[in-house]
Amino acid sequence: MPVITVILVAILTGGMSAQAKINSIQQTNVQVDNQPEVLLDLSVTKPNGETIHTVVKTVIPIVNIPAFQKGSIIEVKHMTIDNELKFEVVGAYVP
Fold this sequence. Notes:
The longest helix has 12 residues, at 3-14. The chain is mainly beta. It has 1 helix and 5 strands.
């Protein structure tokens, strides 16, 4: 399993949950198993009320794209890896 996939799975299974508002979504020119890779500009609100701005590059199953539009609230998971806070989107495509 590629390292990126291992990190993604680790965050999704062991990370802390938070809510995120999608500020924008932009498709890249990449597809993984015919699923689109996107850049999500997010405002994440942690359970303690702290808000963090981040951009997450992720692959979203094409049937779920309608749920990932500007203004939508989605669930994310976060974890500190190598002293850096990393985010992943719940519902992201895992190859």
